Structure formats: C-alpha cells, structure tokens
C-alpha cells in the first residue's frame, strides 16, 4: 500500500480556476441587482502535493481572471459558450488548458521517463440546481492528442451563505480513460529499467472532496480559498512511478470585481 497523503505537480490547477469563477457567478445574487461583475481580476497561489515517486511538492502562482457575457465567458485558463440555461438547468460548451504534466527532471526516480505535456481540451458541461444543491457533470477530450483520452467529472456541492461569507463543501468523482491514465501514470516499453516495468492502465475512478470558502471584504474585493483531497484509483497507486495514493491541494487568492 502506498503512503498517504500524496501530491501532484500541476493537478487540478485548471479546475481551481474554473471552480473559483463558478463561486463568483454562483454568489452573484448577493450583489446589487443579482448580477455578477462582468470582469474580475486577481492573483493567488496553489500549494499541492505530488504522487510521483521522489518528486517535490509544488507552489504555483496563478492569475485569476473572469470575463462574463450573456453567451460567452472566460474563467481562468478555461472558456466557454452557454448553449442553454434557465433557473434549474444549463448546458455549456467548454474549453480549457490542462496543466497536469511532469518532466523527467522532477525526480531522480523519473529519469528515463519521457516528459508528459499539458494539452488543450474541449467538452460539454451541465449543471442541475435542486433548491440549494448543485449537481455538475463535465466531459472533456484531448484536442492536441497529447494523452489522447477523455475525462468525465461529476460533482455535488451544497453552497451556504451568511452575510459576506460563502462556504461550498463538495464531493466528486473523476473517471479517466485508459489513454489518459496510461499517459500520465503509466510506463511504456521504451521507459523500462530494473524496478520500473512496463505498466498500462485501464479506466480509473478517482474520488474527490473539498471545501471552498469565500469572504467578501466589500462588494468588490473577495478573498477565496479552497481545500481539496483526491483519492487515486488503486490502479494508479500501483504504478511503479507513483508512491502516494492520495493528493492534497489548497488555493489562496484575492480578486477584485469591476
């Protein structure tokens, strides 16, 4: 059994961008007129663990940008177009950049492994709102054929508001295709050495939980943080380049809405 907790080099950075923007949009009713600011800009940092053998934990500075129009939007490193939306249900066309990558130089144990690159992904997302509970589903596929796979995300969150404080605990699951999982967690035949055999993966199921917190200092300035935990599929944990079966991350940020 691999050790807990584990960490990842750029894992879920894009999702952090998107989730933070969703908080801003979802809490817009607290603002005058109930409309979200059309433009928000800020900065922050992501602190993350990594599951890769011998790799160091990471701290990544991130910009936080949101542009929100009637049909088109930008949320961090993601963008999209509303295909349909009403009070209970919405469907969006989505695009994003995936930072989930590593280099052989990240660890002595990864020497001889080819670098795994980030990529651009596109897909569809849908949100169902049942009173104060939100169920989200998203499907992404690789446009640049780096990992050549797909990811399906399902997430259930329950927002709480009290004056200028916003809390949103969530539970989720990420299903990753065999190509995706093998690219980021596997070992191909050209990368094998003693103690590092060839390793391919099938579809993997990864469970997630976290808590988003936002504090409004006033109607424009927002402090945000996010704590998240992901439990990796056992097939990922058994990879010869992985030495953790969980990963933890936290994000801190401040943004100003215009």
Description of the molecule:
The chain is mainly beta and 258 residues long. The protein has three helices and 13 strands, in the order αββββββββββαββαβ. It has helices at 13-26, 178-185, 234-237; strands spanning 39-48, 58-68, 72-75, 78-85, 89-98, 119-130, 133-142, 150-157, 160-162, 165-176, 204-216, 221-231, 246-257. β7 (133-142) and β8 (150-157) form a beta hairpin.
Q: Provide the low-confidence segments as ranges.
A: 1-36
Give Rg in angstroms. Answer: 19 Å
Helix content: 10-25%
Helix and strand composition category: mainly beta
How far is it from the N-terminal to the C-terminal residue, by CA? 49 Å
What is the overall number of helices? 3
Mean pLDDT: 84
- How many strands? 13
**Strand arrangement, largest sheet?**
1-2-3-4-5-6-7-8-10-11-12-13
Shape: globular
């Amino acid at each position: 059994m691999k050790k807990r907790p584990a960490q990842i080099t750029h894992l879920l950075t894009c999702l952090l961008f998107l989730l933070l923007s969703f908080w801003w949009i979802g809490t817009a009713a607290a603002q005058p007129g109930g409309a979200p600011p059309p433009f928000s800009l800020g900065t922050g940092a992501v602190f993350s663990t990594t599951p890769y053998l011998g790799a160091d934990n990471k701290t990544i500075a991130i910009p936080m940008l949101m542009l929100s129009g009637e049909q088109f939007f930008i949320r961090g490193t993601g963008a999209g177009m509303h295909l349909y939306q009403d009070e209970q249900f919405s469907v969006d066309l989505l695009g994003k950049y995936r930072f989930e990558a590593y280099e052989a130089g990240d660890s002595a144990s990864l020497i001889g492994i080819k670098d795994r690159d980030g990529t651009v992904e596109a897909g569809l997302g849908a949100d169902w709102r049942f009173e104060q509970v939100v169920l989200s589903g998203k499907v992404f596929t690789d446009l640049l054929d780096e990992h050549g796979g797909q990811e399906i995300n399902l997430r259930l969150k329950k927002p709480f508001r009290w004056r200028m404080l916003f809390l949103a605990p969530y539970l989720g699951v990420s299903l990753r295709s065999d190509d995706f999982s093998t690219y980021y967690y596997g070992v191909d035949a050209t990368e094998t050495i003693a103690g590092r055999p060839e390793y391919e993966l099938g579809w993997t199921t990864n469970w997630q939980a976290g808590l988003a917190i936002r504090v409004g200092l006033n109607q424009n300035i927002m402090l945000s943080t996010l704590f998240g935990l992901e439990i990796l599929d056992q097939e990922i944990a058994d990879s010869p380049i992985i030495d953790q079966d969980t990963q933890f991350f936290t994000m801190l940020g401040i943004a100003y809405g215009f």
